[in-house]
Amino acid sequence: MKNIFPGGLIERILKKTGTPVYIYSSEKILENLEAYKRSFSDLNPLFCYAMKANSNGAVARLLAQNGAGADVVSGGELHRALCAGFDPRTIIFSGVGKTDEEMSYALRAGILFINVESFEELKALERVAARLKMRAEVSVRINPDIDPHTHKFITTGKIGTKFGVAFKEARELYAFAHASRHLAPVGIHFHLGSQIDSPKPYEKALVVVAKFIRRLGTDGIKLKYLDIGGGWGVREGFDMLPPALLAGTVGPLVESLGLALILEPGRSLVAAAGALAVKTLYRKKSGLKNYIITDGAMNDLIRPAFYGAKHPVRPLVKRPGKAARFDIAGPVCESGDFLAQDVSLPTPSRGDILLILSAGAYGFSMSSQYNSRPRAAEVLLTGTNSWRLIRERETYQDLTAKEK
Ligand code: LLP
């Protein structure tokens, strides 16, 4: 992977911002979006960026300005998407537990459609729409019972997970929506999971979903949108898999259906575009283990602790000498607090910067203030030599601001 974090520029940034700080490359994000657009040019789909991957307004705005829509899963994300300037008619709302207030917000904002995930939710949406004297455009999230062969916490398209509804029940949901004055069934949706490294699971899902769409057609229900979710693979330390691989597989299946295609990429657009810069505080040994203790911790980047994710580590300055093996841990009082384990590096000096790579997705957006650590700052590289602070580092005052 090309180095998108030039040492000189990063050093200048860190002098101003301090550490820990998330740094994202706008060029890389746009390169990823363009790769999707190019690969899918025949189908001209709507790419609804999954805001949960990185919901910073500047990142979202960049994608909105370049023709992406947004996939949101909470009222908060909808608020962020609207603030970032996404056209409401390019926003879709997914998730298993939307409240009445969130559904009402989405309807009043005029979003494209709501992905519903249970019969009770559909009925609740009907009541909300009736109260607003509106007709809610809906899509049903199918659980096609397909294993995407990924981490179990990010597997969503299997029966037994909380997501979506099985085909049999989905047919009832569509019939209910079709008969209602306050609902209009316009789409169908599935999302199989995340970090999927083959087009096969999508292909399998599309084959059964296509059959179901045809059956709906014979029930007199004609849909407009086919939303195949996100999840396209990008491994830590690598670029995303070529989206042409996905387009080549799903294209022929989708074309024959004549529906407008929607994708919900999150990670693949932003993961490789981001790094978390942390500073070496101390080196220590514990038995046979060598530790580098940094000022960044699991509250800043929880993926290594939570999913066993292996983010590559790159020292900003290469020290001479033989490499040794290190665990890189933060100051949080938990043995699970590590950013990387068993990585090979020349021993860094105190104060040396380490870049934790592939941290543009589910990094800051999953961060917390655990151990009362103010959340990190965020920076966007805007050109080869230019950058912008896009979120200030939180302060101690921020930690207590809402407390009474
Ligand atoms: N659409 C829906 C309905 C989703 O639930 C998700 C992710 C996406 C799209 C985007 O998937 P992506 O393209 O980013 O794979 N925190 C985990 C990932 C959780 C993904 C949840 N849903 C991680 O850090 O690996």
Nutshell version of this structure?
By secondary structure, this protein is an alpha/beta fold.
Question: What kind of assembly state do the chains in view correspond to?
Answer: single chain
Low-confidence stretches: none
The secondary structure category is: alpha/beta
Associated small molecules: ligand LLP
What coarse outline follows from CA principal-axis ratios?
elongated
Q: What's the CATH first level of the largest domain?
A: Alpha Beta
- In the CATH hierarchy, the architecture of the largest domain is Alpha-Beta Barrel
Taken together, the total number of domains comes to: 2
- Distance N to C terminus: 49 Å
- Tell me how many strands there are: 17
- CATH-defined fold name of the largest domain: TIM Barrel
CATH superfamily of the largest domain: Alanine racemase
Please render the helix and strand layout as text:
Blueprint: H1 7-17, E1 21-25, H2 26-39, E2 46-50, H3 57-65, E3 69-72, H4 75-83, E4 91-93, H5 100-109, E5 113-116, H6 119-131, E6 136-141, H7 167-179, E7 183-189, H8 200-218, E8 225-227, H9 243-255, E9 260-263, H10 267-270, E10 274-286, E11 289-294, H11 303-307, E12 313-315, E13 323-329, E14 338-346, E15 353-356, E16 377-383, E17 386-391, H12 396-400
What does this structure look like?
With 404 residues, the chain is α/β, with parallel strands linked by helices. The chain has two domains: 26-266, TIM Barrel (Alpha-Beta Barrel); 274-395, Lyase, Ornithine Decarboxylase, Chain A, domain 1. It is built from twelve helices and 17 strands. The strands form two sheets. Strands 1, 10, 11, 12, 13, 14, 15, 16 and 17 form a nine-stranded mixed beta sheet that branches. It is elongated. The protein starts with 6 loop residues before the first helix and ends with a helix. The mean pLDDT is 96. Bound molecules: ligand LLP. Ligand LLP is lined by residues 50, 53, 71, 94, 154, 191, 194, 229-232, 264-268, 303, 307, 362, 366.
